[in-house]
């Protein structure tokens, strides 16, 4: 009887692997077709289905390189960093370091002095779901000052001036994408753990998962891709600074699949934290938001996703907890339309 059960289990495993491979062959075909139409854009894709990993990539590390992009090629994941930060916030909840409905007042560095109209108004969950109403960085002006490193001039002094001079939350409770919100979440994490954001993400995500090519301050590695702006000009990777928790982590397809594997496993700390981030904290006629996570629901599926755009690269992560799959798409050019169209085609024709 035991032998029969083991045999059936082996058959089931083989069947699942075969099904996953069939799915990925279709995904690879779509990726390859998109690359043929856009040969100037390098692509790296990782897919996980029932714990089985699959990878494909097209293009070179840069236009002058002879080295092919692969699953270990380094990209800017940009605002996908926010999913990592929101997971850390949820881990802090699990550890009773904070509560999502706590007001931010007592968690901010002492340099912040909130106007009386803002006191006991903004909750941690408001920051994480982009509905705090706080003013944000003026990226247009920052790009004018330094097109290659626009956030390099942002300091704690910059942030405190913006927050301390704010006297009204004109759209509190309404969705407005916020870099400052996630920068503040990074500072809140630093306060509750007494460590830098770099140390926290290293100790709670990167090292436990052995994500050896997920990098923070030092990303001068041989397998780094070159970023290109929409016009094809070379774009530097953003250097690490105070806005790191909003979008400055670098990674590769292999490490992001490792992260997805942990997210989809309800028994891991990261998986338990992810389920907290997947709860609906904001909803209107256009969107549903978890903590840093877009929630997309149709009649058959619920997807969780987050996109990222630096000045020179685009990316997107998406997963379906019920069907136990996840995907990461990394492009070495800022091309949000191509990134989104690629995911949409893969979902509509293969994963739906």
Summary of the model, kept short:
By secondary structure, this protein is an alpha+beta fold. The chain has helices spanning 2-37, 81-94, 124-128, 139-145, 156-164, 179-193, 197-206, 244-247, 253-264, 269-277, 336-351; strands at 43-49, 52-58, 75-76, 227-228, 234-235, 250-251, 282-283, 288-289, 294-297, 302-309, 314-320, 325-331. The protein has a single domain (24-60, 73-351), classed as Beta-lactamase (3-Layer(aba) Sandwich), CATH 3.40.710.
The CATH class, by name, is Alpha Beta
CATH homologous superfamily grouping: DD-peptidase/beta-lactamase superfamily
- The ordered string of helix (H) and strand (E) elements is HEEEHHHHHHEEHEHHEEEEEEH
- The CATH architecture can be given as 3-Layer(aba) Sandwich
Radius of gyration over alpha carbons?
A: 21 Å
Q: Provide the structure class.
A: alpha+beta
**SS summary, helix count:** 11
Strand content: 5-15%
Total discrete domains: 1
Q: Largest sheet at a glance?
A: 8 strands, antiparallel
What is the third-level CATH name, the topology? Beta-lactamase
3D shape: globular
Strand order of the largest sheet: 2-1-12-11-10-9-8-7
Quantity of strands, as a count: 12
Mean pLDDT level? 94
Q: Provide the helix percentage.
A: 25-40%
What is the first-to-last residue Cα distance?
Answer: 37 Å
Contiguous runs where pLDDT drops below 50 for at least 5 residues: 8-15
Pfam families: Beta-lactamase
Protein name: Serine hydrolase
GO molecular function: hydrolase activity
Signal peptide: 1-20
């Amino acid at each position: 009887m035991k032998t029969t059960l083991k045999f059936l289990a082996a058959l089931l495993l083989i069947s699942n692997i075969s099904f996953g491979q069939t799915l990925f062959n279709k995904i690879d075909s779509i990726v390859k077709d998109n690359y043929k139409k856009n040969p100037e854009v390098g692509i790296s894709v990782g897919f996980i289905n029932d714990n089985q990993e699959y990878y494909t990539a097209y293009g070179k590390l840069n236009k002058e390189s002879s080295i092919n992009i692969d699953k270990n090629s380094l990209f800017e994941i940009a605002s996908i960093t926010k999913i990592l930060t929101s997971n850390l916030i949820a881990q802090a909840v699990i550890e009773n370091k904070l509560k999502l409905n706590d007001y931010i007042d007592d968690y901010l560095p002492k340099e912040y002095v909130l106007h009386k109209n803002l006191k006991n108004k903004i909750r941690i969950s408001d920051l994480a779901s982009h509905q705090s109403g706080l003013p944000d960085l003026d990226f247009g002006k920052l790009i004018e000052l330094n097109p290659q490193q626009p956030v390099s001039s942002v300091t704690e002094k910059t942030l405190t001036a913006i927050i301390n001079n704010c006297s009204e939350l004109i759209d509190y409770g309404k969705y407005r994408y916020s870099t400052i919100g996630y920068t503040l979440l990074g500072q809140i994490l630093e306060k509750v753990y007494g460590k830098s954001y770099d140390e926290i993400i290293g100790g709670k995500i990167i090292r436990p998962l052995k994500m050896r090519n997920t990098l923070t301050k030092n990303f001068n590695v041989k397998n780094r891709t070159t970023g290109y702006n929409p016009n094809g000009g070379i774009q530097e990777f953003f250097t690490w600074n105070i806005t790191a928790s909003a979008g400055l982590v670098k990674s590769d397809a292999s490490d992001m699949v490792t992260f997805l594997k942990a997210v989809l496993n309800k028994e891991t700390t990261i998986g338990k934290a992810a389920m907290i981030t997947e709860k609906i904290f904001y909803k209107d006629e256009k969107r549903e938001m978890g903590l840093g996570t877009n929630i997309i629901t149709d009649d058959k599926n619920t997807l969780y996703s987050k996109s990222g755009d630096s000045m020179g690269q685009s990316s997107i992560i998406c997963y379906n907890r019920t069907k136990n799959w996840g995907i990461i798409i990394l492009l070495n050019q800022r091309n949000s339309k191509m990134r989104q169209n690629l995911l949409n085609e893969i979902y509509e024709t293969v994963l739906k």
